Amino acid sequence: MKITQLKNIGVVPPRELNFKDPFTEELTDIFFTVHPLKSKYGKEAEHKMRLRIVELMQDESNIVEVDGKKNLNQDLILEETVAMIANMVSDWKGIEDDKGKAIKFSEDKCIELLKEYQSLADAIYVFSSNMGNFQE
């Protein structure tokens, strides 16, 4: 590989993640279109999360003391992390309600889903983090 080609490494298009059942390791019919963490989408999502965390830290009611140190409430950090992960998803297939009707993708619905099913958020984050790596 020519060294000049490295400048295009961050230009990785979104890819489809076929979610695996975390217990059986079997592929499901659930698909997410995910942007790489190192892409423009990922960098913007991460930046937005950092700004929001700084904003939350300004409010004393969001601060808790852990082992004698002041920290942002853990639930708020989780909430902002899930929002960041949802910002890297641009579509999905195979998500249905209890009646079998497809749920249309939206950022709000994605956040709601990822909050409820942490294993989905974890899988999306790992997939997004690994996209574009030399080791992939």
Task: Explain the overall architecture.
The protein is of the alpha+beta class. It has a domain at 35-128. 40% of the residues lie in helices and 20% in strands. It contains four helices and five strands, in the order ββαββαβαα. The chain has helices spanning 40-57, 74-87, 107-116, 118-130; strands at 15-20, 27-34, 63-66, 69-72, 89-93. β3 (63-66) and β4 form a beta hairpin. α1 packs antiparallel against α2 (74-87), α2 crosses α3 (107-116) and α3 (107-116) packs across α4. The longest helix is centred in the middle third of the chain and has 18 residues, at 40-57.
Low-confidence stretches are none
Indicate the mean pLDDT. 88
Q: How many β-strand stretches?
A: 5
Strand count, sense and closure of the main sheet? 3 strands, antiparallel
Percentage of residues in strands: 15-25%
Number of helices: 4
Topology pattern, helix = H, strand = E: EEHEEHEHH
Can you give the helix content as a percent range?
40-55%
Given the helix and strand composition, which structural class is it?
alpha+beta
Helix/strand layout:
Elements: E1 15-20, E2 27-34, H1 40-57, E3 63-66, E4 69-72, H2 74-87, E5 89-93, H3 107-116, H4 118-130
Antiparallel strand pairs: 1-2, 2-5, 3-4
Helix pairs in contact: 1-2, 2-3, 3-4
Keywords:
136 residues; alpha+beta; 3-stranded antiparallel β-sheet; two-stranded antiparallel sheet; 5 strands
